[in-house]
């Protein structure tokens, strides 16, 4: 049994396709682990393997997938970590979840997350925090914390999450797994309970880079139900690169300077990873992203502004909670939202509403959108000279539960190395690059739009020489 | 700096009935966040066009073909108060 759990998703899929492993047996092995989990990583677990057959012959071979709570799944609770839609069972399924099922990855369970994907620690879930399998007194990161912890702990072979400002990459880094945020538009957003529509992207959280490529290849493509989704140019093959010859890596000065608050252990690990990249043939040089220091500010205007509009739908009329039904309509709205939303969601709704309100729109939201233009231009200029921009994924390793909840701004600062790529709409991957004081560190590679194939290749070459061992979290 | 009046005004726009304690807290927390964010006002952004979407998609048209939609009972199944085949709501007037 433990042997089964030690197989990567790609290896398990191969064995199932070769009829050396039974798909239902693999499903049950993970189902039992997910059911018994004491990390609070799951909000719902399937009763058993799907009744439908034929998974074994599909590209993903019947290897089950854990899905972040905010993806709508027909008839299955989809609550986005919020009390305001507690128990909500949607009448339809998100496109990427359907695509994965059709490709041979049935639904294993739904994973815990920060409420409406707002958070960097998973402490904002209405269903309680998720614990980090490397150290249960610490957070798994967020907002896709349940997906990351489940994969790291071997409660799921692989998972999907969403990334708005770092919500796939940062928990992947803190849990010691791989997380890919795709190019904006690569994957359909249909059926994702929206946070910030111009930033949200679905992507894989996996044990290794090969698994990420295998799964990502089945997630992409235009969807008539999401007019912002695009046909992905070319195909995603399994990564094979063994070196980084001719690859130019840029180290952005603005994100790496002395007062950026990067922990010494993280910085040491980052430098060691750069040295490994050089040994594989890459060149490493400093580069400029002049507006990157302002990305966080722009992000914390744009994302809350879009959220304040998206979350207007939770009003006690069509689904979910209703409070004050005996009062007038507006009082019912106000009481429902007061009772249903948690503190962080209220904070972001307030911030976003303020940024969009009459008299402040130009100074806040309008300015943030201009900064976004400058940040996208910075990346375009940098990618003229560099193949990838590389940073630590998070300035810190996993922090203790409760240690940053009192100061929202301190929590937001966690995201300063992941939000620039989100604003530019460009892809980025986080891979585990070692441990610092026993906790995983993530290394982020970012490339130009639709460079996922090359990114996965480079990440794969690095992964081989890093030789990260994640089995410590899978006990 | 966001004072109490502004917090109440914004909460009204956002249809949030904040408790006294929350009004207090929002004022402090949001002011702190806004102080940090306001640094972007120092940038010279004259003549810079805004970006609302990074992807260059203009007018994503599709054929206007009738498609089956969810049956009414399915669409209403999760509603707190389904009423005569629709979503029941309280009167907009005073209670």
Structural notes for this entry:
The complex is a heterodimer of chains A (about 475) and B (about 100). By secondary structure, chain A is an alpha/beta fold. Chain A folds into 2 domains: about 325 residues, Amidase signature (AS) enzymes (Alpha-Beta Complex), CATH 3.90.1300.10; about 80 residues, no CATH class. Chain A has 16 helices and 11 strands. In chain A, strands 1-3-2-4-6-5-10-11-9-7-8 form an 11-stranded mixed beta sheet. In chain A, helix 7 packs antiparallel against helix 16. In chain A, about 65% of the residues are buried. The model of chain A has no long low-confidence stretch (mean pLDDT about 95). With about 100 residues, chain B is mostly helical. Chain B has a domain of about 40 residues: Glu-tRNAGln amidotransferase C subunit, N-terminal domain (Histone, subunit A). In chain B, about 35% of the residues lie in helices and about 5% in strands. Chain B has a two-stranded antiparallel ribbon with strand order 1-2. The longest helix of chain B is centred in the first third of the chain and has 18 residues. The model of chain B has no long low-confidence stretch (mean pLDDT about 90). Chains A and B meet through helix 10, helix 11, helix 12, helix 13 and helix 14 of A and helix 1 and helix 2 of B.
